[in-house]
């Protein structure tokens, strides 16, 4: 290699950088040309230092905000905001997602497939029909008429997908098993509560006043309402385990049940006793460990009864209890936030319905003001991008954030806000 040919390149500057790919499309590694490397060793010595990259990817923070006049045209009608409770939940998960779906009305045309969503709809229909026809005895009615209810639904699927009959039969068998297990559990639960079904699929159309001539109009359906004496409780069916906790509620990511109970007294002329998620799904994994361990007891061999207790614990209704604890569940075995203390059924946490109502009103006021100002930031809560239909449009490359309190309420537990203030 003639060094005179390359000498001019090294006399133009103090440092010379060589860049090259470290691999090819087949995944094979690449290195600096031997001729260049040999020349550099002879010319400048044996050591080379890699070029320090200050930042591989440069991120440009951009504010996503609409002109207020455009925001008014997209989101509002006569200064009022309209939508379902679930659509407003999506705003608090990601304002930009809400903008694309509810503002620009971009809807993804999804193919009709047999998925978990469809199975949830079918299970929901079984429970709705059973409660309508049998009231409090709905679990036994559902068990007796389960085949009569499921067969027509799955027969339609078989006609729609004639080449998937074997698969559909398997899915139907699995769905039947899950629904049976839930109905049996609910049968035990009904034996330990004084509450009875009052209504199912209650249409919900209410409004929250934000300011003079400014309202948020809400719509939806309440799956089921139970009642006992002057009390009522709201139940929302879910195909998988869902929970309510302060962090989720105060962040605006779980508006449905808290919104319904906000208008409960007005709708049902009763006092709110509780709001609950009732799951008819099942955990994807089951513990098979033969022993449990505790410092005080050491290793203990698990029995069938231990597994049944664990199974029932996972099936418990989750949510908030506000009053009438004993009549809701006289054993505290079927409602997650109840326990036995000195022989009485009590709440594990005394959630204040007044504070909950205040928090929900603040969240809807924040929603209205944010949209009024045209705020559509890519302010993404962790997990929101996973099943988002707009990932190809959004191209979000930022960092997902933890759920955070968006209200002035520091805690929903009775007395805690007073202690904090003092």
Structure description:
- This protein has 422 residues and is an alpha+beta fold.
- Helix content is 42%, strand content 18%.
- It has helices spanning 3-11, 34-44, 68-75, 85-93, 95-103, 116-134, 138-144, 146-160, 165-190, 246-251, 256-262, 264-268, 304-315, 325-328, 353-372, 391-394, 416-421; strands at residues 76-77, 80-84, 196-211, 214-228, 231-238, 271-279, 291-294, 298-301, 318-321, 338-341, 344-347.
- Helix 7 packs antiparallel against helix 9, helix 8 runs antiparallel to helix 9 (165-190) and helix 11 crosses helix 15 (353-372).
- The N and C termini lie far apart (83 Å).
Give a brief description.
The chain is an alpha+beta fold and 422 residues long. 42% of the residues lie in helices and 18% in strands. It contains 17 helices and 11 strands.
Per-chain topology:
Elements: H1 3-11, H2 34-44, H3 68-75, E1 76-77, E2 80-84, H4 85-93, H5 95-103, H6 116-134, H7 138-144, H8 146-160, H9 165-190, E3 196-211, E4 214-228, E5 231-238, H10 246-251, H11 256-262, H12 264-268, E6 271-279, E7 291-294, E8 298-301, H13 304-315, E9 318-321, H14 325-328, E10 338-341, E11 344-347, H15 353-372, H16 391-394, H17 416-421
């Amino acid at each position: 290699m003639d060094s005179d040919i390359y000498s001019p390149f090294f006399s133009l500057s103090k440092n010379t950088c060589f860049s090259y790919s470290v691999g090819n499309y087949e995944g094979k590694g690449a290195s600096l040309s031997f001729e260049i490397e040999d020349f550099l060793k002879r010319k400048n010595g044996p050591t080379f230092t890699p070029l320090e990259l200050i930042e591989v990817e440069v991120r440009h923070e951009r504010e996503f905000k609409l002109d207020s006049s455009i925001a008014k045209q997209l989101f509002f009608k006569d200064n009022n905001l309209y939508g379902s409770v679930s659509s407003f939940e999506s705003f608090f998960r990601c304002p930009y997602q809400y903008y694309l779906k509810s503002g620009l009305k971009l809807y993804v045309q999804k193919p009709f497939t047999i998925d978990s969503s469809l199975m949830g709809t079918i299970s929901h229909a079984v429970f709705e029909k059973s409660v309508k026809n049998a009231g409090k005895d709905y679990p036994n009615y559902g068990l007796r008429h389960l085949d009569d209810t499921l067969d027509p639904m799955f027969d339609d699927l078989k006609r729609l997908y004639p080449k998937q009959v074997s698969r559909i039969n398997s899915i139907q068998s699995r769905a039947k098993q899950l629904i049976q297990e839930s109905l049996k559990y609910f049968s035990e639960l009904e034996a330990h509560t004084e509450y009875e079904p009052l209504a199912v699929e209650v249409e919900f159309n209410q409004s929250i006043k934000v300011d003079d001539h400014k309202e948020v109009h809400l719509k939806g359906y309440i799956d089921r309402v139970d009642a006992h004496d002057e009390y009522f409780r709201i139940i929302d069916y879910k195909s998988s385990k869902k929970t309510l906790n302060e962090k989720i509620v105060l962040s605006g990511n779980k508006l449905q049940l808290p919104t319904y109970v906000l208008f409960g007294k007005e709708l049902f002329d009763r006092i709110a006793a509780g709001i609950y998620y009732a799951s008819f799904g099942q955990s994807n994994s089951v513990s098979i460990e033969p022993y449990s361990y505790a410092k005080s007891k050491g290793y203990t061999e698990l029995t069938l009864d231990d597994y049944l207790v664990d199974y029932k614990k996972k099936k418990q209704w989750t949510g908030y209890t506000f009053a009438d604890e004993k009549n809701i569940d006289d054993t505290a075995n079927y409602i997650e936030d109840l326990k036995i203390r000195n022989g009485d059924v009590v709440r594990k946490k005394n959630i204040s319905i007044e504070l909950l109502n205040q928090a929900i009103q603040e969240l809807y006021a924040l929603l209205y003001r944010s949209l009024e100002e045209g705020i559509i930031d890519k302010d993404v809560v962790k997990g929101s991008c996973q099943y988002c239909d707009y990932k190809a449009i959004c191209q979000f490359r930022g960092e997902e954030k933890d759920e955070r309190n968006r209200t002035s309420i520091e805690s929903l537990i009775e007395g805690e806000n007073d202690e904090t203030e003092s």
